[in-house]
Amino acid sequence: MEGPRGLEPREFKSLCTLVNTVFRGDGVGRMEEQYPLLFAPENYDHLLVMVDDGAVVSHVGALTRDISVLGCRMSTMSIGAVATYESHRGRGLATQLMEAAVRKAVEQDAVLMPISGGRGLYTRLGAKRIGQYALYTVPRDLLAPGEADIRRVEAEDLHELTRLYAEEPSRYVRSTADLRMAVDAAWICDRDGETVVISEDGRPVAYAGIQKRRPDREDEARRARLAEIAGSRSALLRALPCLYDRYGVDYLEIVTTASDIELASLLRPHGVTAAPQGFTGTVLVLQPERLLQVFEDYITDVLGLGVLTWEVSADSVVFRCGGKDHAVATSDLGALVFGVVPPDEDPIDTFPTGLLRTALESVFPVQLPWYGFNFV
Fold first, then answer.
1. Tens digit of pLDDT for each residue in 266-289?
2. For the whole prediction, is pTM greater than 0.85?
3. CA distance linking residue 154 with residue 274, whole number of Å
4. 247, 227, 245, 229: which is closest to 237 by C-alpha?
């Protein structure tokens, strides 16, 4: 048995056989085509594998990208396409690969590890569901019909779409090359889809990556989902009446960040409010001290220099303010910084009322980006 190690080019076909056997037994597409960012040749070193007699038998896929939150930038390593042949399960192969991925991520100074899943393999490492998002369900005929310039994204639109996404306050740092691969795959997060652009006066002002309806599932046969949006929210809403017919649905769902106050404000007069959503997988905070360092200038701008301080150890983070201190488990830091959705426990509730809790509530939670096209 060889590994954990990065994939060698000659092993790519063997890897594809593994992941498609595990995840595409229904024959709906191929993983390497649906997730081109993950399975790109330049990312082979991050496709961590165990190889038995020349065949890839276990895999953990990793993709390193930066995120920007309120102008604060940090590196992340996303994990997906975790697969092991049934014949090789129970040997700890995936555990070895995940541990290798964590080591590799820390060596590359990644701060967070978003993971497409929540099984024990991840939670044993400390991964938790964190982050706050919003899901809006907008029924047909709620919005008045109107004119909208909507079309499928074309190659010449991509630079403008990259700019629109770059103006989102919480986002992945995404290149046009990354966007091109994701759009061409026509696979949005975990579903067949397409990307449409909304233009005004001949210029793109918004776009949406839309998961198409699934006629084979009764609960999803009448709805499509805008799984990534960027740009003008008002233009997106004006486009919705046209999208019902385009996808043959009676409901359109919009998933966005909890911090998207503009969309919330536009939908509220129509009686549409958000259903709070958590992250669809789990997130591991790889470097707790680095996470707080990333937001140190932001915290100082909000509270003033030295008002809130902290001390990080292997097991806890002690926050201090106004002569008071309180500790949270290091494993709960991500939930404190990025928030949670009930019924998950919010670490801020362990803080007694006072200056320290008020200070923390003034700066946290901040918005963890929704991964959209960066889903792996």
1. 999 999 999 999 999 999 999 999
2. yes
3. 31
4. 229
